[in-house]
Amino acid sequence: MSTRLASGGSVIDRETTVSFTFNGKTFKGYKGDTLAAALLANGQTLVGRSFKYHRPRGIMASGAEEPNALVNMGVGNRFEPNQRTTTTEVFEGLTATSQNHWPSLEFDVGAINNKVPRLLPAGFYYKTFMKPQWAWKHLFEPIIRHSAGLGNAPKEADADRYEYFYAYVDVLIVGGGMAGLAAALEAGASGAKVLLMEQTANLGGRLAVDEAIIDGKPSADWIAQTIADLDAMENVTIRTRTMGSGVFDHGYAMGYERINDHAPDDTAPRHRLWRIRARRIVTATGALERPLSFAGNDIPGVMLASAVRDYASLFGVSAGDRTVVVTNNDDAYRTAIQMKNAGLEVPVILDARPQADGALPTAARALGIRVDTGKAIAKVKGYKFVTGVEICSQAGEGTSLETIPCDVVAMSGGWSPVVHLWSHCGGKLNWDEANAMFSPDPIRPPLGSDGKGFVLTAGTASGELATAAALRNARTVGRQAADEAGFASLTVNLESLVLAHDEEPMLPVWSMPAGAPYKLRSKSWLDFQNDVKVSDVRLAAQEGYESVEHTKRYTTLGMATDQGKLSNINGLAILADSLNAPIPNVGTTTFRPPYTPISLGSIAGEARGKLFKPTRKSPIDTWQDANNAVWEPVADWRRPYTYRRDGETTAQAVTREIDNTRTGVSVLDASTLGKILVKGPDAAKFLDLIYTNMMSSLKVGKCRYGLMCTENGFLFDDGVVARLSEDEFLCHTTSGGSDNVHGWMEEWLQTEWWDFEVYTTNVTEQFAQIAVVGPNARKVLEKLGGMDVSSETLPFMGFTDGTLAGIQARPFRISFSGELSYEIAVPAAQGQAFWNKVMEAGEEFGIMPYGTEALHVMRAEKGFIMIGDETDGTVIPQDLKLGWAVSKKKTDFIGKRAMERDFLKRDDRKQLVGLLTENPADVLPDGAHAVEGGKNRYGQENMIGHVTSTYFSPTLNHSIAMALIKGGSKRMGEVLTFPIGDNKTIKATVVDPVFYDKEGERQNV
Amino acid sequence: MSNAISILNGATFDGAVKITEAGLRGMITLRGDLSSVQLKSAVSAVVGLGIPTQRKINRGPKGGVAWMSPDELLLLVDYDNADAIVAEITTAMAGEHHMAVNVSDARAVFLIEGQGAREVLAKGAPVDLSTDAFRVGDLRRSRIGQLAAAFWMTEDDHFELVCFRSVGAFMFDWLSNAAREGSVPKYF
Amino acid sequence: MLMLKCPNCGVTAEETEFAPGGEAHLTRFASGSEDQAFSDYLFARKNPRGVHFERWRHAFGCGKWFHAARCTATLEVFGTYTGQTSTPPDDITAAVKAKRPEWEGFK
User: Fold this and answer.
1) Has residue A664 got a pLDDT over 80?
2) Which residue of C9, C16, C64 is in closest CB contact with B126?
């Protein structure tokens, strides 16, 4: 049974105990423990169930590669599933529960799947549930939904905060083991700005466990000295608990900092996503040990050999009392030696190689450990925990030679460099035959904006597995990175004196024993989380899957949250073997960021709640909010749809606002309208090109409604242009169009007509624009006082500058309602003050504010089009009866050439019409289609157009609509049919779209 | 102009870093040929400062002048005199193509002050804000999260930031959130 | 995510500050031009694997347009230059040629 050792544990603080719960049971751990270490220290070896077969799962690894030991963490608004116990630090009050079982971890009904594995072979979901057809929906899917998935989804909104941080560095080093520290030291000495990120809480990596003597210093001393040296460098920053999660184009890297996962509090953000630009990135990400594939290699107690010694060395925890070591290399002997030295039993080392006479095996034998070469595990005995192993010859088919009782199996199939970050952005790999691993090819790196490689690898991540070689490589690369980042290195000697055990070559062993029959293969796990076994990959190959990418998706190998960190190479080797192809020919699957899962919160950053998306607010916003505005989004703005009074429905409020405007006076906040100043000797010439109308003929002091088209001839924005002086114009745009139109003008000025002398400035927000509208509008302005607002001085389509109520004001006599209307621009900072004065002055005339819906209805009554309602990016001005605003005199304007195309000149295009429904109370649905009778060749109704705007007009006491109808201008008086669903139709007569005051007498007074 | 109010009327947030809405500031967009003698003397006449070099801001007792683009300056002037200064520039620039516009009311201005001010901005701006890369007198137009903004450093750990008025409240909330106690990365 | 240097304000910034504007150096065909020429101007865009000339706007910066010469396959940036030119300047084509000797030149 696993337990805490009396001594040892370099990263724990035995003085500080913390208590936590697992499945409701309270356990004690030490500060510095990972949850996995603390669970093992408490004898909890069973921690979860597997995805498909619900097999018992224990802790297999000691770091980010852990496939099994995932738990639900926290409760309520801090609940999170699938947290790796091996990378979670314990803290006081931590609560964890195991996943993927029902009703309990100890007794799981889902484990029935384990009894019928032949029902769930590779690709079972493509095969098993095909027939009968009804069964999928009613039988299979509900069952699968219930049993699938690992953790539970959180039910409450996350209580924590997250943020981004942008950093620019010369050299980014990912990994704080020996290689990362050494590379940082070299790069730092050059003066380059260095950022080193380490995913765990501690620096030193494997060197903290696997002792070596470097330049006369034992590992721990060398690590401490190097950290001290780095701390002394102002240009070097070290961030622990920060994972290099991805490498992207042009030196972009992401770091995932877990700020207070180890000590939750309410002040600091939980995670910080570092968005780093580095001139050079050094991945010193080390290597991961590979499991071996033998029957029962998934039973709790079967662990990576390196993990077994990590727990002993870092946390003072023994994984068990009797450890059988099974290996194909020398490195695993370190585990046996360490266990033995800790006073624990190592009944046997099973080495698949025919002989093992290197320094480490010799040292093991000297301690009296039995070493069996050429031997393998036939199968592991046990179910919820290991009880022993049956041993066999590696060469044979698994005939049991002997059963050896044990509670831990420490396995090692060799090591693979962590090449993920190297590969994220296109770094290529070489197959290293001797070590049976893929390692980075330094001459095919990811390329930066200058066409040169920007990622380098250091240490074991380069494929240098021996300590001395790894250190030499790391120092060289650290210097090279600084050099390439533009910093000359200062140090001369790159050689260190390293005393470590030499290792003899490993032997690639993909299947144990070599001739394992189906019975054993079907119990030999490759992907422990997703339950993919050797037999599944062989089956996939048999069924014709040759591509590793296809096999991955068919079998789900490497698709779990660990993304195949342990399973990929083994699975690949099995596939290659099944296909009789060399491993490098089969290739690897694609490595994609992030390296390990990162929180969705960190990806969202601060953008949640009120910071989710900016809303633009007008200068009158606060007043509106306090006066019952019913908000609606208009582009990025919010605008009052209507102002609802007590006891009113929204529709009643809109009707009241319309009636008041048509009969008295109302006020509208039109501040959101775009306003662009265009000035210069060529301003008129320029606007003649931008607008379809002639703007150069506009008189100073006058306004003109103008249209803007794209080069396709399609209408995209409109508004009133005012000529301020001979060389200066103010162009109004739609509320949503100001930035677009300003950008559009600048684009043409900068990239096509750069010889024009024209400047533009977007002054949309400089002004609050307040429309006083209705027959009594003039009276309100007269009462405000300060300028002559008579029709003689300020006629329709004119404007003037002056003051109103003591505030600098520019009233425009323009109307979007058809009523007498003044749109008054005042400085935005005085917008609220002016609004208040208007309300005061208008009180005796019954003034009230109106919203966008009343605006819409009134403009529709007048037949005025709305960009985005009557236009959809395929409509030309002529379609909307706006041909009068398209100049025939001008030789050029944007869109003119397109309007010369045959298709745009056809007279059966969809054209704007008005519609009056047969029943005045029927309001056509927005977007309703008119049908012509008859069916097309697909059996659908023949459609001839659709409704673009539709309202009940209180002014006319009749439903009105606008529509784009094929050949519409020739259909006056025709009755059209609009199906509205449920076999119902509405009939409407085609009329002129100007429903109210056709002569425009009301606005021109 | 007693009627005039800035977007948040001088609101402040005291966190690890202090955020202040700076109130009304006079601002003039001046577009023209930045190498022109006439423009140089017009600017000098109104703010007593020379034309800044690329991405720099010059500040003095009469105001400031910021380089915004190859043909655009932002003049920082007394709020109440902004219109008069526009008129003065227009007169001084007579005969030369240019554009001078009072944009004071279109903007919101924030002060970000205290140790960690760089880090508050670096949470939202994809800009190198380290001590050797961004110094007093430097100006950058970029984005803060989703919002366009321009900011410059007036003294060590003191920044001024301008954005559009309509998103001033959002910017204040954003900055305050980034400036909360306990959230400074302590990197720079 | 690309890093580009805006030649107008001198900033080397990440892609989120920029807005792409598609193929560079299009010739505008206006009123009276041939249908084919106009149609090509509107719709026919180059899509090479390799050397390409593009328009970009420093949207979250100085607001100015510029051009970039870039390799669409490796994302290498050969250079950025003024938006006010209808062909790539000589130093840019020389820079491209130096890196991609097989490139046939701007057409």
Assistant:
1) yes
2) C16
Which pLDDT tens digit goes with each residue over A753-802?
Answer: 999 999 999 999 999 999 999 999 999 999 999 999 999 999 999 999 99
Chain A CB contacts of C3 under 8 Å are: 250-252, 277, 449
Q: Do B178 and A163 touch (CB under 8 A)?
A: yes
- Predicted local distance difference test score (pLDDT) of residue A138: 76
Q: List % helix, strand, coil for chain A (3-state, nearest 5).
A: 25, 30, 45
Residue C38, number of CB atoms within 10 A of its CB: 20
ipTM: 0.97
Q: Residue C11 is part of which domain span?
A: 3-99
Question: Could you give the number of structural domains in chain C?
Answer: 1
Alpha-carbon gap: A744 to the closest alpha carbon of chain B (Å): 18
- Does the CB of B141 have a partner CB in chain C at under 8 Å? yes
Looking at the fold, whether A37 and A143 belong to one and the same domain comes out as yes
Residues with Cβ within 8 Å of A534's Cβ and at least 6 positions away in sequence, in order, are A293, A511, A516, A521, A522, A524, A525, A526, A574
Domains of chain B: 12-23+106-178 (3.30.1360.120), 26-104 (3.30.70.1520)
- Paired tokens of A919: 């029943």
Average pLDDT value over all residues in chain A: 94
pLDDT tens for each residue of A409-440: 999 999 999 999 999 999 999 999 999 999 99
Average pLDDT over residues C22-42: 96
Q: Which residues contact B91 (CB under 8 A, 6 or more apart)?
A: none
Residue A113 has pLDDT above 80, yes or no: no
Whats the size of chain C, residue-wise?
107
Sign of the CA dihedral running C23, C24, C27, C30:
positive
Q: How far is CA A234 from the centre of its chain?
A: 34
Helices (H) then strands (E): counts for chain A = 27, 52
- Residues from chain A that touch C2, judged by Cβ atoms under 8 A, are 249-250, 449
User: Which chains lie within 8 Å of chain C at 3 or more CB pairs, if any?
Assistant: A, B
The answer to whether B131 faces chain C, any CB pair under 8 Å, is: no
Question: pTM (2 decimals)?
Answer: 0.95
The reply to whether residue C13 touches residue B55, judged by beta carbons under 8 angstroms, is no
Domain boundary, last residue among A397, A413, A429? A413
SS3 at position A401? coil
In a domain, A1002, yes or no: no
pLDDT tens digit sequence for A949-981: 999 999 999 999 999 999 999 999 999 999 999
Which residues 51-110 in chain B show a CB within 8 A of chain C? 54-55, 68-70, 72
Give φ, ψ of B102 to 5 degrees. -75, 115
Instruction: Please name every residue paired with A295 in a beta bridge, in sequence order, or none if there are none.
Output: A379, A524
A12 belongs to a structural domain = yes
CB-CB under 8 Å, C77 with A449 = yes
- Please tell me the total count of domains within chain A: 7
pLDDT (tens digit per residue) in B13-42: 999 999 999 999 999 999 999 999 999 999
Domain that holds residue A963: 906-991
Q: Does residue A377 sit in the same domain as residue A426?
A: no
Helices A467-484 + A178-189 axis angle, to 10 = 30
- Identity of residue A102: W
Q: What is the CATH number of the domain that holds C39?
A: 3.30.2270.10
Residue by residue, DSSP assigns A235-252 as TEEEESSEEEEEEETTTE
Q: How far apart are the first and last CA of chain A?
A: 97
Residues A100 and A79 in one domain: yes
DSSP 3-state of A305: helix
Question: Which run of H or of E encompasses A964?
Answer: strand A958-966
User: Is residue A140 situated within a structural domain?
Assistant: yes
Based on the number of CB atoms within 10 Å of its own CB, is A25 exposed (0-12), middle (13-18) or buried (19 or more)? exposed
User: Looking at the domain assignment, is residue C107 inside a domain?
Assistant: no
